[in-house]
Structure formats: structure tokens, C-alpha cells
Amino acid sequence: MKKLKSLFDYLFYRIYTFFREKGDNVPETKGTLILSLIQFFTLLDILVLIRLVYPFSLPHKYYVLPLIILIGFMNWYKYEKNLDLENFEEKWKDEDPERKVRDEWLIGGYLILSFLIPALHGILEHNLKVL
Fold first, then answer.
1. For the chain, what is the HEC assignment?
2. In angstroms, rounded to a whole number, what is the distance separating the alpha carbons of residues 73 and 75?
């Protein structure tokens, strides 16, 4: 569980620094929102992949909304309200610049991939009636 927390911290820090370097006025908010989006899409991906093996109906969007709000609130509390940038900067200040760029590309790619899995599943199942 500690590695997962560290992964979320790293994702937030990378997203935060990306927007801070672009001159954004609220990089912590964008970091929190994008991290919440990644976490939600990861949970949705797991549900979709399980559904391919064991068919079941997905919950209605109104039942998922509290989960999205809970993820967003938990991330807001940890990364915006109690933001401890010194801790993150101390942890990753000596990161290799090549690794930093690679990790930023991996984060962007994962965000796109995690969005595409449920989108493609929806297209294949509802529009094309393949699944």
C-alpha cells in the first residue's frame, strides 16, 4: 500500500511540476484533478476487464458519482489543502532529466490508454454490438 501511495505522490508531483513550468496559476488544482481522473479511469478499466471475463451489468452513472466525488475529495485534502511540496521536491529533486521526460510521456500515455479501454468497450458493445 505504501508503494501505491508513493506512486500517487509521484504522479501528482510530475503533473504539478508540468503545469507549474508552463506558467499555470493553479498547478496544484490541475494536478489533483488529473490524478483523480487517472485513479477513476484505472478503477473503471479494472471493472471493464473483469466484465470481459465475467459478464455483469455496470452500475448506473448516478451510483458512480459518489465514488468520483470521494476520490476527488481525498486527493484535494492530501494534495491541495495539506500540500507539502518540500517533501516531494526533496524526494525527487535529483531525478535524471531523461527519466523525468520519459515519466511525463508515460503518465500522458497511461492517461490516454486508461480512457481508451472503457471507450472502446462501450463502442464495441453498444454501437457495434460485437461484445
1. CHHHHHHHHHHHHHHHHHHHHCCCCCHHHHHHHHHHHHHHHHHHHHHHHHHHHCCCCCCCHHHHHHHHHHHHHHHHHHHHHCCCHHHHHHHHCCCCHHHHHHHHHHHHHHHHHHHHHHHHHHHHHHHCCCC
2. 5
> 108-127: string of b/e by CB count within 10 Å (b at 16+)?
eeebeebeebbeebeeeeee
Q: What is the pLDDT of residues 6-38, one digit of tens each?
A: 899 999 999 999 999 999 999 999 999 999 999
Question: Is the model's pLDDT at 82 over the cut of 90?
Answer: no
Distance CA 34, CA 4 (A): 16
- Domain boundaries of the chain, sorted by first residue: 2-127
